[in-house]
Amino acid sequence: MSATGLDVFDKTVQTTNIWLKEIEQELGPDHHVAWHALGAVLRAVRDRMPVELAANFGAELPLLVRGAFYDHFKPEHQPLAFREADAFLALVAKELAGGRPVNTETAVHAVLGTVSHHVPAGALAKAREAMPKDVRRLWPEGSAADAGAAH
What we know:
By secondary structure, this protein is mainly α. It has helices spanning about 5-25, 30-50, 50-60, 65-70, 85-95, 105-120, 120-130, 135, 145-150. The chain has one domain (about 5-150): Uncharacterized conserved protein DUF2267 (Globin-like), CATH 1.10.490. Helix 1 (about 5-25) crosses helix 6 (about 105-120) and helix 2 crosses helix 4 (about 65-70). Residues about 145-150 have low confidence and may be disordered.
């Protein structure tokens, strides 16, 4: 029996929980922190992408995660012009403020690693390529994005 009465909702909750558990492996067992980190990192990635690429990447995300990705979306301000990893990390840190303290770079690594396990390699490669070189170094080594870029 479906928990919500709609299979699409049950599936996205199940998938989102899988993603959160992967993030928790690096950040600790706290769904709230994992959810907060997931949204913060995805929005920082989104805001550095051209709008069309952000829309294509967002379409690859589970329904609930897609909602976090598009939260506070202002396409008229995209893409942000930062070039350095420090600016990217500052965007994420600003969103993570107020919750349980989390190392920003660890949160970025955990989220991008999880996304890399679940989003198709082609979409990952395009998203990663849209990042400045200094920001790309934050993407975990050996991710599906690396494999997609090699093809």
